[in-house]
Amino acid sequence: MLAFGQAVLPTITVRGTVIDSVTKQPVSYVTTALQDVKTQLSVRSTLTKEDGSFELTAPAGKDYQLAIIFVGYKNKIIPITPGKSIIDLDKVILQPSNKQLSDVSITAQKPLMKQEVDRLSYDVQADPDSKIITALDMIRKVPLLSVDATDNIKLRGSGDYKILINGKESAMMAHNPSDILKSMPASNIVKIEVITTPPAKYDAEGLAGIINIITTKNATQGYNGSVNGGYNSTFGYRANLNISVKEGKIGYTGYAGSNSRPAYSSDFENLSSFYSPASSLSQTGSRANGSTNPYNANELSYEIDSLNLLTATFNIYSNSNNQTSSQFTTQTDANNNVTQSYHTQTNGTGSFKGSDLGLNYQLGFKHNKDELLTASYKFSRSDNQQNTNVSNDQTINYTAPNYIQNNASGAREHTSQLDYINPLKVLTFEVGAKMILRDNYSNFNNDLFNATTNQYVNNPTQSNNFTYQQNVYSLYNSYQLKFTKWTFKTGVRLERTTINANFTSSQSAFNQNYNNLVPSVSAQRTLNPTSSVTFGFTQRIQRPGIGQLNPFVDSSNTKYITTGNPNLKPAVNNNFELSYGNFAHGSINISTHYSFVNNSIQSVNSLLANDVTATTYANVGQSKNLGIDVNINYPVTKKMNVNINSEYLQVWLKGTYNGNFYTNSGQQGHIFTNSDYKFDNGLRLGVNVGFDSRYVLLQGRDNWYFNQGYSASKEILNKRGQISLQVSNPFSKFNKLDFFTKTPDYQTYNSNQNFYRSVFLGFNYKFGKLNSEIKKAKRGINNDDAAGGRN
User: The pTM is what?
Assistant: First the structure.
C-alpha cells in the first residue's frame, strides 16, 4: 500500500508586544510587517491587538526584517535572525517622535470590528460617519446591536443589558440611554464594546450582556478638543463640546452637551375588545412630548509618581419634559350601542436629575508595572419627579372625578471596590471584592377633585410611601491563559443580595436574601493573523430594578393602568455562543448563540374590571432564544465602503399568569446597511437602509420598522472642520407603529403615528495639538448589576 501526502513547508513565526517607551503601556493598532531584506517588499503584515501583541508567520528560507510603523512614533526596523522557527521578541519599545521617517512605507486600513476572547468591539473613530451622525445612529452599525422604531436599544433582540461609559455605570445612562445617545455626537466615542461573555470582574446583572461605550481619548501635554452641533427638523438642536488638557502631572478629559426636542403633536389609537360580557372600547386622540437633556462628564487625573495615580470622575445628567394629550373615549356594548363616552385632557410635567462622583487610587509595582492594585469609591444619586393633571368633560355615563397624580422617586448608592491584577507572561490573574449599598424611595399620591368643596382631596387608596434597600456584596476571581494560538479566560463571581422594602403608608413590608454563583468561560483559537474562532458560556442575572418593583399605580389613562410588582424574583440566564471573525480585507463576524431563562421577568397584561386593563411585571416562565448574527464591513474600492449589520432569531416563550397558560414563538430580527463614497475633494456621500421586525412577546407582538437615510458631508478649514446634511425617510412625515395584545379575557390593538421624516444640518470642528499621553486608572467601579424598567 502506498501513501501519498504533501510536504509541509517550513515557516518562521515572529511575535512580540509593542510598548510605548514613555508610558510603558502597550500600543494597539500598530502596523507590523515582515519584509524580504533583498526586495524590501512586505511578505506578511498585521496590526497589533488591544494589548499591543502581534504575531506574523511567513515561509522560511529568506532573510527578513521586521518593520514597525505607527503615526507619532519613530519607525523601527529589527533584523530577524535566521535559523529559528519561532522568534519571540518579547517587548518591542517604540519612541514617540514629532517627525515621521519615510524610509519605510506601509499602508494598512484600521479594521472597524475586532473580535476578542470575550467581546466584540467596533472602532467608531475609524468609521467616517462618526463626524456626522449621533451616537444612537452609530449603535445601529455595531454588531449584535439594533435600535427599534421607538429608539429602544436591543442587544441580540433583548432589552435586558447594561450600558457602561468607560467601563463604569454612569448617571447619564440611568434614566433613558436613548435620550442621551441621541443628543451625543458619535465623534465623542472612541469605540463600542459588546461584551457577550462578561468576565467575572463585571457585575452579573444584564441577561444579554454589557454594552461598554469608550469615550475618553488619549491626551498629551497641551490641549485639544472638538465642538459639534446642529439642528434637526424633528428632534430639535444638539450641541457638544469635548476637550482634553494635560499640564505636567495633571490631566483632564471631559465633554458637555445638550439636546432640546420641541413638543410636536401626533395621533394615537387604542382599541380593545372584551369577551364577557361582549363590549368594545375605543380611544382616539393626539399627544405631544417635548424635552431638554443637558449632560456633562468629567475625569481628572494626577500622577503622583510612576507607580501611584489618583483619578476623580464627576458626571451629571438631567431631563425636563412636558406632556399633553387630548383623548376621546367611547365604550359600546355587543349591539354597538354607546354605553359610556367622555373627553380627557391630560397635562403633565416631569424632571429627572442624576449625578455620580467617583474616586480611584491605583498602585503599580516596581518589579512589574502592569501589576496593579486599585481602590475605588463612587456615590450616585438620582431624583425623578412626575406630575400629571387629568380633567374630563363631554361625559356620558361617566362620573369619575378629575384628579392630580404625583410620584417622587429616586435612589442613593454607595459603592466600594478593591481590584488586583497580575499579568504574567502567559497567565493573567485577577481578584477583587465589591460592596454596593442602595437606598431607593418612591412617594406617590393621588388627589381627587371634590366638586362640593371645589378642592382636591387625597385618595388614601392610591397613595403610599415606598422605600427599598438593596445591598449587593460580591467576590470574584478570574484567570486568562494566552498561548500562541489559544487564549482561555475563566472565572467565577459570588454575589450576596439582601433586600428590605417597606410600604410605610400601608404598614407592609417584605424581605429577600439570596446568593448567586456566576461562572464564565471563554476561549479563542487564532486561525491565522487575521481570523479566529471564539466560544463562550456564562450565566447572567436579571435582578429587578426599582422601576419594575415600584407598586405605584399609574392611572393617567384610567382604562389602561400600569404598576410595578414588589414580589419579583431575580432571573438567571444561561448563554452559549460560538463566533468566527475574519479581518483580512475589511471585517466579517458570524456569531451564533443559544440562551434560556427558566423564570424570566416579562411584561404582562390582565383584566381588572369590565373595561379596565392593567400592565405589570411577573416571573412567568421560560424564555429561549436561538440566533445568528452576520456583520460585514467591506471596502469595495479605496473610496467606497459597505457595512451590513444583521440578525435572525427564533424565540420561544411560555409561562403562567393569573392562572392562564401562555405560549408564543416566532422569528424576529433586523438588518441595517450603510454605504458611503468619498471623493478626493473631501466630499462624502452616504446612504443607509434598515429594517427591524416585530418582536415576539408573551401575549402578543410589537411593531416593525423600516427606515432609510441619505447624507452628505464636506471637509473644510484644512480638514479640521466638517459640515453635513442628513435626510431621513423623506417620503413620509409619519409612520404607524402598532402593537397587539391578546389574553383569554380581551384583545387590544394600539397604534401611534411616529414622526418619520427629518432633516439635519450639522457641523464638527477639531482644535488643539498634543504630544504626550494622559495616564488613567485601569480599574474602576462598574455598577452593571441592576436592571432597568418603568420609572
Answer: 0.78
